[in-house]
Amino acid sequence: MTAAIEFRDVSRVYGEVRAVDRVSLTVQAGEFFAMLGPSGSGKTTCLRLIAGFETPDSGSVLLNGRDVTDDPPYVRDVNTVFQDYALFPHMSVLENVAYGPRVRGQRKEDWQQRAREMLDLVQLGNFGDRRPAQLSGGQRQRVSLARALINQPRVLLLDEPLGALDLKLREEMQIELKNLQRRLGITFVFVTHDQGEALSMADRVAVFNHGKIEQLDTPRALYARPATAFVARFVGSANVVTGELAQRLSGRAEPFAVRAENIRLRAPAASANGDTMSCIGDVADVQYHGAMSRWQVRLESGEVFAAAVADTNSNGDFKIGARVRLEWARNDAVPLSAAESS
Ligand code: ADP
Ligand code: MG
């Protein structure tokens, strides 16, 4: 099968900044692909390279197997949905959605009908006559989506499309977007700095740091088997253990990660067995999160561990300042590649 998008060793440099640094990736047709990373890690530049708003300094970009590296945006079969919606304020919602077919000179009856279909698709069937200013943030985002989808692109690029929405609306839109993508079978490239969003929506996630991909994997694999310290911390904030402490706990100098939810708190004198690793520290802080509590435990050597504990009453036995034993299964210590990149 031909990949919908392929980067071959693509770089884009601005002065001293390697915004995109020798990135290679393939996105399959129909895939929901997320680019995840902190601000400044090169995600938007990657989208602009796909759309053709940027040209790489080296490497090549392919769409559906064709080299488009030097093609201008308007000949590429991709559309972009921007974080700020970029709607035309003086046009009605219907006219906004119909923008693509109108500039291509489609007949009025035709573009009106298509635009109404698109508004139905994003559940805004009754909003065609309004102006963008008369809509909520979530509704504007859906108009912007309908305006992209009307062009029937094979690839839709979404740059932090839910960033401006409040939490509840964001969660609703996550579900709607995912359903829409499944139904239409369009390839989505979805940029976000929110690891929860990437994990819950994407088929695969590329984790960016300093213009490079640290790991490209399914959400489950990223979470269960982070490859680097950066990914372990950024995706689900795992504890990263390095140096002497790693040596003391595991018997080897290689760094490893252990998820907060895999750590148990026990009495200091509790006995450990060979299938576990354990260490002793003092409770520095406890944050209540409803279903669970997050404990910060400081070891004598100074490192702080986070442990997430299902909130049963028994945890009330440990007070701030109390001495506790942290324990986790050896299997839950995930070896990390030694290259410390963060
Ligand atoms: P992200 O979308 O992950 O936040 P960007 O791709 O926007 O990251 O930016 C990556 C890096 O490239 C940043 O350091 C940014 O400041 C820089 N950069 C992006 N666009 C330009 C530009 N047009 N001119 C100069 N520097 C840029
Ligand atoms: Mg960006």
What would your notes on this structure say?
This protein is α+β, with helices and mostly antiparallel strands and 342 residues long. It folds into 2 domains: 224 residues, 3-Layer(aba) Sandwich (Rossmann fold), CATH 3.40.50.300; 104 residues, RNA polymerase II/Efflux pump adaptor protein, barrel-sandwich hybrid domain (OB fold (Dihydrolipoamide Acetyltransferase, E2P)). It has 10 helices and 18 strands. The strands form 4 sheets. The chain has a 6-stranded mixed β-sheet, sandwiched between helices. Strands 13-17-14-15-16 form a 5-stranded antiparallel β-sheet, with no helix packed on it. Strands 2-1-4-5 form a 4-stranded antiparallel β-sheet, with helices on one face. Helix 4 crosses helix 5. The chain is elongated. It binds adenosine-5'-diphosphate and magnesium ion. Adenosine-5'-diphosphate binds next to strand 2 and helix 1.
